[in-house]
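Handout, section B. The chain below has 292 residues.
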Amino acid sequence: MTENPLLRSYLTAAGVASGREGQADATLRRGQFHDVVLIGDMAYRFPRDEESRRLLPSRVAVLRLLGACPMPVAVPGLRSDAAVGWPLGRCHAVLQRVPGEPIEPDQLAGPAATAAAIADLAELLDQLAALGSDAAVRRAVPPADPRSWQRFADDVSGVLFPLMSAEGRARAQGELSRVQALDPAGEALVHGDLGGTNLLWTLAEPGPRLTGILDWDEAHIGSQADDLASLAVTLGWPLATKLDARRHHGRTPTVAAARAIAATFALQQALPAALSEDKEALDDGLSGYRES
């Protein structure tokens, strides 16, 4: 059995016997809200806090639904939800791992690779837009909160402003003012965190091809500006602008809203970190809002 105490406890909770073949290759990946144990082609997802544990059944239901929907890329398949109602530390869902790996923006350098990536991403966003009108999807996935940005601004001012410098508060006030002017409503199925390590690719010619999307916890019905913002921060604004233009006949109607949303990403990281007392994530999120 592994020497990592936390990993050992998760393996025990998951019922993975010490002699099972492949357990020696078990790895633990820690996230802000979940820990994931990877063994072979399976991922055991453990909530890290009570709120994430409470939400796990509904999030598992979304994965079950997505598994039955036509998608141009793979999503984590649900292998077992037998333990989603268990206490924290034992509560988990078992998921099928998705093929592919995250990439760096420079791996999409060159016209051919960029065009291939834009084609894959456009197909994904088009399908998410179509799924937003599916009755089953709309029953399982909540609509965007019309007051979400106002609530976010109120929470940031109450929790994070006391931790900022005067200059940092002025910067944050400007960012919050711009994002509060946006309407979060829309008709698309929105992933909610469509960037970073949630995008999985496989190597191909003329460039990597999008093969999988992880972490649908923030899925909702709303504006695709949310997803374009995440894509832009991960892959660059030039690619995101070309992607928006491809989908809207040469126009880029979503870019301005996406820029306003992307400007709040550091605050979006810092706020839950402050509430959960995650000092490392908090310090990282507020690094641009404190005295240098």
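Note. Residues 55 and 70 are 25 Å apart (CA to CA). Compare this with the example in section A.
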